[in-house]
Design goal:
By secondary structure, this protein is α/β, with parallel strands linked by helices. 32% of the residues lie in helices and 19% in strands.
Length: 407
């Protein structure tokens, strides 16, 4: 029996450049980073980031439940609500036993954990929140979405660092193919802009140090790239078997054609310099999709703007895709949203397929001369895109790649 096509029928995003999918898309295509100094980071070696603001999250969540949710949970819920509405679904009318929720995160509620530790140290145990555990454990985005959506099918919280979003989508695809659910809400969320995280990125050498306007610091694939800028956000997608989606009258945004995953088994932070293990994930996704490399019209790169990652990834792209498809790297605008990055970038790739527009890489005029890749710079590139891949390469050597195509 052939494997059923899996459709992405709904998309929801909340990011540093937009509180929904459309505003996020406009912001990424605009090519300007919102990175700025962030209140509460005074005195930190890195005191800037790309943050989600301009929205009252508690009001948007509504009701009393918001008090038990960390920011990472609230972001995921808002993205999930948009995705479900975009898919034309109504949780009050679906069979919740056939709905899965797979939402990954890299650090969960580490921000809240740190805040509660400070309260404990300064004021004692009696001052800590009764929701301290709920504010911190990484499964709560999936759990709270399931509660709100009355989804009683499989629920999981994959954690593969910066690859968590693509891992979640891959798990959701497998649940649909195996028949364990009929609808899957899948994606990832992250919010870790707090002093301990900023200190950690500074000490690790991965974070960009302040040198002028923070908005210009994240420069993927540039010769003078200086490290990552932290971001936050969430993206959730609705996945369904394509024939069933069409039967109910839904128009798929894109088809999830294949996924691939490997592990470098090399170093906790640095990618394997050869890139061969990450390349194997790309090749696995192509095999899963049944594509040749030359079938790929676009690459959404991991593109962290760190010295080692960009060199590894550029070499990988030039080896696997010698026909030089256009490459973008959204972290130049959004910053590195860590566990949420792969889900957000998958969502952007879906929009590229739909609209025939590849967003430019922010802060990049010309790629480093050592890189033989076709980076989109300055302005969005308009051309038909039929098939695309999106890369996610995480701390710990977690590599995950997703292949998407126009319906």
């Amino acid at each position: 029996m052939s494997r059923p096509d899996i459709a992405i029928t709904g998309l929801g995003m909340i990011t540093p450049v937009g509180n929904d999918t459309e505003s996020t898309w406009r912001g990424v295509c605009g090519g300007v980073s919102p990175a700025r100094t962030v209140a509460g980071l005074e005195g930190c070696a890195i005191d800037f980031a790309c943050v989600v603001d301009g929205i009252d999250l508690d009001a948007a969540i509504g009701g009393r439940a918001a008090f038990r949710m960390g920011k990472y949970v609230k972001l995921a819920i808002l993205a999930a609500r948009e995705a479900v509405a975009d898919a034309g679904l109504d949780p009050a009318r679906w069979d919740g036993t056939r709905v899965a929720v797979i939402v990954g995160t890299s650090s969960g509620g580490s921000t809240s954990l740190t805040e509660q530790a400070v309260v404990l140290d300064r004021l004692g145990a009696g001052a800590t929140s009764p929701s301290a555990i709920l504010l911190t454990i990484p499964n709560m985005p999936a759990a709270e979405i399931a509660i709100q959506m009355k989804a009683t099918g499989p629920s999981m919280a994959p954690c593969t660092a910066c690859s968590s979003g693509v891992t979640a989508l891959s798990v959701a695809r497998d649940l649909l193919v195996s028949g364990q659910c009929d609808i899957a809400l899948a994606g990832a969320t992250e919010s870790i802009v707090y002093p301990v995280a900023m200190a950690g990125f500074a000490r690790s050498g991965a974070g960009a140090q302040r040198d002028g306007d923070p908005a210009g610091l994240c420069r993927p694939f540039a010769a003078d790239r200086a490290g990552l800028v932290l971001g936050e956000g969430a993206a959730v997608m609705v996945l369904e078997r394509a024939d069933e989606a069409r039967t109910r009258g839904a128009a798929p945004r894109a088809l999830l054609a294949g996924t691939g995953a490997t592990t470098d088994a090399h170093h906790p932070i640095s990618p394997h310099p050869s890139g061969r293990i990450a390349q194997a994930a790309v090749e696995a996704a192509l095999r899963d999709a049944g594509w040749a490399a030359e079938d790929v019209d676009h690459v959404n790169a991991h593109g962290t703007a760190t010295t080692a990652n960009d060199a590894m990834e550029a070499a990988l792209i030039s080896r696997v895709f010698p026909h030089r498809p256009p490459v973008t790297a959204p972290k130049g605008v959004l910053g590195h949203c860590m566990g949420a990055a792969g889900a957000i970038e998958t969502g952007l790739t879906v929009l590229t397929l739909q609209r025939g527009v590849v967003p430019p890489i922010a802060n990049l005029d010309v790629p480093s001369p050592e890189f033989d890749i076709d980076c989109v710079v300055k302005q969005p590139l308009r051309q038909p895109i039929r098939r695309a891949v999106s890369h996610s390469f995480g701390f710990g050597g977690h590599n995950a790649v997703i292949a998407l195509q126009r319906p």
